[in-house]
Protein: N-acetylglucosamine-6-phosphate deacetylase
Amino acid sequence: MPGFVDIHCHGGGGVSFEDDGDIRLAPETHLAHGTTSQLASLVANPLETMEATLRRLASSAAGSATVKGFHLEGPFLAASRCGAHNPAFLVPPTAAAIDRLVEAGGGLVRQVTLAPELDHGFTAIKRLVDYGVTVAIGHTDCDYDTARAAFDAGASVLTHTFNAMSGLHHRSPGPVAAAFDSPHVTLELIADGIHVQDPLVRLAFQATPGRVALITDAMAAAGAGDGRYRLGSLPVNVRDGVARVTESGAIAGSTLTMDAAVRRAVAAGISLPDAISAATSVPAQAVGLLDETRPAGSNPGSLAVGSPADLVLLDEDLRPLRIWLAGEEYPRAGLPN
Structure:
């Protein structure tokens, strides 16, 4: 199958993308699990800190074979649904703030998550779309009508569906139902059995065929074990593979890898072809990585002739057996047991 494409990942191998040191451990950790393309996701921080991080990452991404751009999960989030983001660093999605962050990213900001109730007139959504950035709705208290209007205005992804938003309710359907009813919207899903239980995994795939993108939302502890970590400015404790903010107890990302997400989806009853699409072509299309109008050789998530030779061979238990990145086989010694 094509190499996995993870459009929402904060780190792995003991490091976060915000860290000042060598960030290569994070993509290398996920590459060993079959992820050959990923977006480096950043949590909310002061604008000047995020700018500096983006400039540093933009410089290092040029030499990365797997990091294809950046996803800003903050700072344009609702404080009431901030989860593992520091509420002190949340700001409205103004034109000035957007311009600063997009410019700092050097053309590599591919996705921005925002709470649409903060975006009056949806001017921020329209501005980001004009920049060619995919807009995701998330960490929001918005209702169905607001979410639907935001999707109509150009937003096209729902960030980690069911998490950090109101749930489905028969008299208050909320943003999940709005995503169901918007055919152009891709629904991110953390299939780890912690963020989303299996019945809702099945519901998402059944309600939106071909529109679910499996993500990890992984933090530094992915591939590194239990212990104490940081996610942005917040201390996080990981126990039994579950990451929680030390003070509030809020879930702080995951320790998931994409191969494990595929296995969990299949175990939940999703067909293997659908699970593979959700880990490859669907997320790639959602953030503009897979575009059949582009020249050959620039379409991650595809096995078409001319696409990058990013490949994963899974064994009968859906564990990586062999991995190729741009035609070069990843060393067997680097694969997980």
User: Anything to note?
Assistant: Residues 4-224+251-334 form a domain with the TIM Barrel fold (CATH 3.20.20.140). DSSP finds ten helices and 16 strands in the chain.
